[in-house]
Amino acid sequence: MTESSPVLVSRQPVLDARDRVVGYRVSYSVLSGGFPVVPTADEALSVVDDVLSVIDHDEQVLGNKAHLSFSREMLLRGEIPQIRPEHVLLRIRYEDAISEPVLPAIKEAANRGFELELDGLPGPDVDLRLLDHFSAVEIDLSRWDVDEAAGVLTRMQGVQAHGLASGVSSHTEREAARKLGFQWFAGPFFATPNMVGGAPIPVGDLYTIVELYKMQRRDASLEELIAVIEQEVGLGVRLLKYMNSAYFGFSGRVRSITQAATMLGTRGLSRWALIVASLSGSKPIPRELALMTLTRARACELVGLDHDEQLDSDELFTIGMLSTCDAVFRMPMAQVIQELPLADQVSDALLHKTGPAGEILQSVIAYESGEFLAPTLRSTLLTNSAAYREALDWARRAIYGMA
Length: 403
Known about the structure:
By secondary structure, the protein is α/β, with parallel strands linked by helices. It folds into 2 domains: 7-191, TIM Barrel (Alpha-Beta Barrel); 203-402, Hypothetical protein af1432 (Orthogonal Bundle). Helix content is 49%, strand content 13%. The chain contains 19 helices and 9 strands. It has helices spanning 41-52, 57-61, 72-77, 94-97, 103-111, 146-155, 171-180, 207-217, 222-231, 235-243, 257-264, 266-279, 287-307, 313-322, 325-329, 333-339, 344-352, 355-368, 381-402; strands at 7-16, 21-32, 35-37, 65-69, 88-93, 115-119, 136-140, 162-166, 184-185. The chain has an 8-stranded mixed β-barrel with strand order 1-2-4-5-6-7-8-9, surrounded by 4 helices. Strand 8 (162-166), helix 7 (171-180) and strand 9 form a beta-alpha-beta unit. The mean pLDDT is 88.
């Protein structure tokens, strides 16, 4: 890695049984010969601050730790990064943890106040005496038999260590894992419809979303836009509250939708109305899901602008937003799409990830998942890396403005 080589980094939320974020599994790589690789110990130590920047100060204050991989090489050298223990949870693979030469470094890290997570268990017949030093044990449910996972959790009873179920693909699977005894959960389930925790949002609540989406597809007049905003009780009030937040930083108070339109333009105002209507309605969605939605939307737009200036940036932004609409509205994607007046290429992008927009969406999702070797990223990896960082920062500021 040279000094100018970028660090590839993304994060995936870790949630508890009540779907509250308790930390982030941080995926990171460096480039070697144009391909993402696991960094050496020296490289990891030099980029750790950059890697941890994907979790901001406010998230750290809430106790959201970075779940950070710690390599065998770093353990053998006894080089623990100069970072505050309360900000990270060090992930150590089982095959490294059982190695006698590594044990002193594990004990030192624990003595310095670092929480440790035991990852990559090979099977149910593992040596759990290691848990004297570990506060979490990860089991990948996409690779493990459920009964074998349950057996390990039973053996962990009486030990002060959290069971972390990774590779969880749905809320139903998450609920089954919770009943087994897991306390923490990670995987793509978070961006899927939660039919366990509540009923679908009534289709009628999609009316304003439908009308605002139409505004994105054509040059609507200010009068048409105001009429749509005023049809949903409270949307105008929420929108003005947002316009007057620190995010926008207007010098004077915005007192009307008309005034907001003169500042943002009709298309700009319709975009923000779509965001507010989707993410801060009468039935607010979890902050992390809103953050993921906006990050995807902005990342799709940025990747598209770099890929082909002829692509419609508003359409790409909207596709990114709608990519989580099944989770937002708690119904299958196909059902939500039936209610929206989507162009064929938009429907294909959302349902099948086809066409230029679908390929961009697929690359954005792969990058956020830490799948840096995904074929869809082969020619756009650096573009996606820069877009992800910018989009995450933008989305965080936007979400704070909605609070």
